[in-house]
Amino acid sequence: MRGKSLxxxxxxxxxxxxxxxxxxxxxFKQDGLRAAPFKAQNMALNSYATQEGLEMGRxxxxxxxxxxxxxxxxxxxxxxxxxxxxxxxxxxxxxxxGTLSAMEYEAxxxxxxxxxRSIYHELESEYDAVVIEGAGSPAxxxxxKGDIVNMSMxxxxxxxxxxxxxxxxxxxxxxxxxxVKLLPEDEQARIKGIVINKFRGxxxxxxxxxxxxxxxxxxxxxxxxxxxxxxMEDEDSVTERFERSSGQGPIxxxxxxxxxxxxxxxxxxxxxxxGVALRYAERPGDLKGADxxxxxxxxxxIEDLNWLKQRGxxxxxxxRARSGGMVMGICGGYQMLGQRLHDPEHTExxxxxxxxxxxxxxxxxxxxxxxxxxxxxSINCGSGWLSALNGTELDGYEIHSGVNAFGPECLPFLTLxxxxxxxxxxxxxxxxxxxxxxxxxxxxxxxxxxxxxxxxQKGLSENRDEILTxxxxxxxxxxxxxxxxxxxxxxxxxxxxxxxxxxxxxRWADGD
Length: 512
Prior knowledge:
Layout: E1 5-10, H1 17-30, E2 35-38, E3 41-43, E4 47-49, E5 55-57, H2 58-66, E6 78-82, E7 87-92, E8 95-101, H3 102-124, E9 129-133, H4 151-157, E10 161-166, H5 172-181, H6 185-188, E11 191-199, H7 207-217, E12 221-226, E13 251-256, E14 261-262, E15 276-281, E16 292-295, E17 297-298, H8 301-311, H9 313-322, E18 326-330, H10 332-336, E19 340-342, E20 353-355, E21 362-365, E22 371-379, E23 393-400, E24 403-406, E25 411-416, E26 424-426, E27 432-435, H11 445-457, H12 470-488, H13 491-499
């Protein structure tokens, strides 16, 4: 081991790899080590446009921010964005190269291996260390031949591995033991530490099992991480965020959980707004009591719009909007608000044309080209409640296909620098809005104005508390995460593993 890289792998998806990578990167930053994240292949619909206009997964963006770095597509050279159960858009080096079936992608992966290796070594040369994240499990024996993200990546980087198991669903000892034993001996030898994640209760109850696991595998358990109430960005739609409500208060914000929902990280800050309760909806009844309905981004706008109609959600959203309720769409959700959506070349969907919700006066036409760009602009609204924010600057990024053709009933409220056409528009009543700008809520100013407008409509006083920005929110959560992980992960062992030193077993034998 060369003391340059450290890899976190898991017994399966959603065991906490992304969060622990972010935590360790934050700790390294606090300790004066300049370290970068890396994930060879990411499958997620939450993505980001870099300064160069390249697309990468948001998990590595979050990890870069935890490390105090500007996100680079080198940190995530391959991104898969599922368009259906069997097909994904494949993005290599930040640029889409096509949409492939699972079998087509398996055949394509060998051509990526050397490219990924080259990108990794270029990144490694720029930093003191690289924290590498695996995907799913390294023990998916049906996929090992084409592996480019787990043990094959560990070998390419000559990285020691820390294996993570999630105790929350049960069976963590079996999943850890089984994962290790399904690997060939040389890969077993690469695993230098084990971490159990999401533990609830007194760790002393766990200690006999930890001691026995070390005896069976001869691999030290270097940490037991408790269940953490840390608000971090989720890598993909396998998240508990959709199943719970957050925040509390008289303002009910409801986000529609679309089948191909993407970039729902746009809404992470919203639950921090005082007096707001936030939840996700999948059925018309879930919209009951909603003061604000948010339609998020999606990888397949037309298919998800069709789903809205089949579910009866579309009729309920239209009814609420026409009775004065607030509705806002971001990116694909914004496109759904228009009069009609055209996809003549089947860029996103098998459906060539579909009527929109008809709440904003524009039509969308999809083309194979894709906009991926960071953007900045300001609010400029002729009249109405939003005009109080005129001149307020907003910045974020755009990732979308489709071009809007606006009618006379669309009122611009957001214009981006260097653009002639508006990015954000609303109806004349001011209760239906849409924008392509991911990050429109990140300064907190726009959402505060939206909430205060709803409060005034309900006869409530405005909230004048200090506004929390997304940057402040993330920094706070990164530091909370790092502090909690420091307390429960043996960082001395982590540093030894990074340096290529062995860590002995036996720390749990005496009940330490």
